[in-house]
Design goal:
40% of the residues lie in helices and 14% in strands. The protein is α/β, with parallel strands linked by helices. Helix 9 crosses helix 10. The structure holds zinc ion. The site of zinc ion has 6 residues, from loops.
């Protein structure tokens, strides 16, 4: 089983996770820029974070033969902090870099006027830089948040086929399906979407435009739940080709729209990262 995790925050995971993911069949992933828990107080710390998403993390992933890509954005939560707003001015420079395959995660956290502005501004950046957009939906008041999200996407003029709306569930799946956007589902260990519930949704709505991710971050989460979902699909009677479509070809098609997905020579794990010796057992 080859797996492409289209949404996982490796910054918050250990190197052991990379090792376990590689053993489970994860060959590629996309790490969206997000909130780091501790509030950031200056745009400079975002620049350092973005650099690590484009340098250090691809190197860590490469040690295990995993291809790492990133999405770059000012996340919805920190869009509310005036100290972080200047990050919007940093983005054009980052959105031109190799390895950046979408603008994200953007969207709503608490649905404030500040989030409205920053969401619309970043959809405009996606259009200007000809990149897809990865859109986070709020965990509270999800149905209303998703409706409002889709209205803003429609107003922006971006092609819905270049937008993935993430963290969906049974309540929001049809709204997004009707919009023409891609549908993202985050599988969690004990809350929200589970592998079995995901299989039910695939049975009901088919595999087209469906993206399954582990969204693993600082919280309780499991980077192997993509694999568990593939196993649950097979047990439920889906074919290996169906699993390959959902866990590999769909994310490749979605992020491939950036023109920057690099999946060539995936077996070559000989990455190099200047100045580093930690992963090789140095100091
Ligand atoms: Zn996320």
């Amino acid at each position: 089983m080859r797996i492409f995790d289209p949404h996982i925050h490796m910054t918050s995971r250990t190197t052991d996770d990379y090792e376990r993911m590689a053993a489970a069949g994860v060959r590629a992933l996309v790490e969206p820029a997000f909130w780091l828990g501790q509030p950031r107080t200056s745009p400079d710390t975002f620049a350092d974070y973005f650099d690590s998403l484009l340098g250090w993390e691809p190197f860590r992933a490469g040690q295990f033969g995993i291809r790492h890509h990133a999405t770059i954005a000012l996340n919805p939560k920190e869009a509310n902090d005036p100290r972080c707003r200047p990050v919007l001015d940093l983005l054009p420079r980052y959105l031109e870099k190799d390895g950046v395959v979408a603008v994200g995660e953007i969207g709503y956290d608490s649905m404030t006027p500040e989030e409205d502005e920053v969401f619309a501004a970043q959809l405009a950046l996606a259009v200007a830089h000809e990149l897809p957009a990865l859109v986070h939906t709020p965990h509270r008041d999800k149905a209303r948040g998703t409706e409002r999200t889709l209205a803003v996407v429609a107003e922006s003029g971006i092609d819905p086929g270049r937008v993935a709306v993430d963290h969906l569930n049974e309540v929001t799946v049809e709204l997004v399906r009707d919009s023409g956007c891609w549908l993202g589902f985050s599988i969690y260990p004990d809350t929200k979407m589970s592998p079995d519930r995901m299989v039910e949704l695939l049975r009901r709505y088919g595999t087209e435009r469906m993206l399954v991710n582990s969204a693993a971050d600082w919280g309780r989460s499991d980077p192997l739940l993509t694999r568990a979902t593939g196993e649950a699909m097979l047990l439920a009677g889906f074919t290996a080709d169906d699993v390959d479509r959902v866990l590999w070809r769909n994310p490749v098609e979605f992020y491939g729209q950036s023109g920057r997905l690099d999946l060539a020579d995936l077996d070559d794990a000989d990455a190099t990262f200047e100045g580093n010796s930690i992963l090789r057992g140095g100091n």
